[in-house]
Amino acid sequence: LHEARQAAPPATPLAALRQQASACTRCPLHCHATQTVFGEGPEAADLMFVGEQPGDREDLAGRPFVGPAGQLFDRTLGEVGIDRGRAYVTNAVKHFKFEPRGKRRIHRTPNAGEVERCRWWLEQEIEAVKPRLVVAMGATALGALTGRKQRLGDVRGRLLPFGGGRSLFVTVHPSYLLRIPDPVRAAGEMTQFRNDLATIASKT
Ligand code: URA
């Protein structure tokens, strides 16, 4: 007789969440994406970064920020002395939204409804990790975290109260930096992003 084999229960609340999220059908984005890309990092990280949604590379790898934007993010973290391994890194939306074009999959911005449906996971991640500082990278993350439409430029670059003794810090999304065609402007924006991350490094 064989004993019924059961998968071991998840070891932590975050592991349980990750497992639940892997089967998420809260919005239609799961239909075409390869897999859920849940956040990753230490369960008790003090610092949490929130992006928009996984891109093509993240969708295939099942990990956040591993493509071109992730490489820029990693490099800049290194320049300001933040070890990514001590941060929890996640996205506002956990499935890749795209439009097929030939062999390529072109990123499409998630709509308000998709962000709203996925907010549930983000809130659970914050609840489980309990970071002291949450960093919104870009307008989608800002909207998901605050539930409000605000101009990024109005709130960028300083600590804002976020409830529960937590702070929110707002900066641009690294993908935005990769899309600036004018090299002089791109360099200026890059410097500002690096300064933002340096401010975060000094606060954590
Ligand atoms: N852009 C994001 O917002 N998140 C990722 O994980 C990758 C690219």
From TrEMBL:
Q: Specify the Uracil-DNA glycosylase-like domain's residue ranges.
A: 38-198
Family assignment?
Belongs to the uracil-DNA glycosylase (UDG) superfamily. Type 4 (UDGa) family.
Name this protein carries in UniProt? Type-4 uracil-DNA glycosylase
